[in-house]
Amino acid sequence: MSTNPLSRSRKRLLAAAASVALAGAIGLGAITGGTAPVYAEAVRVEAPQATGFADVVAQVSPAVVSVQVKASIAPASDRGDSPFSDQQGFDNLPDNHPLKRFFRQFGEDGNRDQNRGPRYNRRDGNQKPRPVAQGSGFFISEDGYLVTNNHVVADGSAYTVVTGDGKEYDAKLIGTDPRTDLAVLKVDTDAKFTYVGFADDAKVRVGDWVVAVGNPFGLGGTVTAGIVSARGRDIGAGPYDDFLQIDAAVNRGNSGGPAFNLNGEVVGINTAIFSPSGGNVGIAFAIPASTAKQVVQDLMKSGSVQRGWLGVEIQPVTTDIAESLGLKSEKGALVASAQDTGPAKKAGIAAGDIITQVNGQDVASPKELSRLIAGITPGKSVDITVWRNGKAETIKVGLGEIPGADKQASAAQPASPSEPSSLADLGLTVTQSEDGKGLVVTDVDPSSDAADRGVQAGDVITTVNAVEVKSAADVTKALDQAEKAGRKAVLFQISRDDANRFVALPLNQG
Description:
The protein is an alpha+beta fold. The protein has eleven helices and 27 strands. The chain has helices at 5-32, 54-60, 98-106, 108-111, 150-153, 289-302, 319-325, 343-347, 366-374, 449-452, 472-484, and strands at residues 64-71, 130-139, 145-148, 158-162, 168-177, 182-187, 209-214, 222-233, 243-246, 258-260, 266-273, 284-288, 308-309, 312-316, 333-338, 354-358, 361-362, 381-388, 391-398, 400-401, 421-423, 428-432, 439-444, 460-464, 467-468, 489-496, 499-506.
């Protein structure tokens, strides 16, 4: 049977159309049947998770407390005369001046006017202490000893410690040390407290994590974190400055609070901040644990700190000073003067000596010398190595106890004779002092190195390269000797206002 080609083509076309219709029906059924489309999974990166501070904080926070300080404050009427009565010129006002009439009527005189009655709400008897300061602290023993800053408790008469769970305890002041700004309080109770210990801050490195816990602005326990930004900072707070600088947020009220390492040990005690506005800018300073540990032990033992005393005024060794004395480096502490009653002078240490070692330990700077001597018990003998006359000498000194206040001798300002002499190479004009001890500077060339280094008219030159001078010729002789010895600078001892210092002047002038 023959088949028509047109008929075969029609059959194929019908079969294809049927297939398309069937596929469309299946797709429509899938849509109307409610089957959801399948999407790709959300992106998720498998990476190591950064370690947080929660575990450390949970362990150390119970040891950190708020310290509230109270003091008895006299009412305004008990503070004497009018607040303006001690102002310059107030007493010179006429008696009928409106200001004088006002304060006569409403000031102290008004309080004594029986007809008018008291003008202030005066209270009889002892005044109840009022809050005057607050800060932070931390327990260092389970029986209630805690550490804070001296400036937190200063001038206080009553102290309250508030723990993290809100419990309040009265505390008594055991002792303070203003030189390091540390204080120790004691809570007397049967309760046992969580306490923390001091770290070995010699192992603390710049870049290590620190966690600060404290009471900023009286808000209560607050935790911030940062790193150690620097070590050995001298901020001019005292003679033993050796602060850790941290960038953890520290604000008012954090004073006395601890800075912890990740082992929960105290590496520093937050004490000061650098801030143009009074708020945190990421620069805070903490007393290092090594300093605090020794001071705290002394305060717990006796309520005060005993420090060794050498009895010298010292200044840094600059490059010019080192060159003038033949030293290879600018390390050590230059003795500007030895106090008459001090142990150093009795042992033979004199102005112009450079102290380079204490008991064999190198002295890098005046601050380090102060810390080394302060850490030695008074009465002990130490070996002090000094650089004198171009060589090292060791002198044994029996340390005294640092006095409560510095004593300075007073002397009349020497008058200047009428005939000055010129030291043109140095830019100075000098004249012999009235007592014959040294030369009084009468004029300084403003373009000279002497002027750049702070030499002023009225200064007294007492020695040049450790040799006493009484005339301009003595100075010229000392300059010649230094030049022959190949020195590039000469060391002048300058006296001003009963204080001594050394200035190195270069020889390449003229």
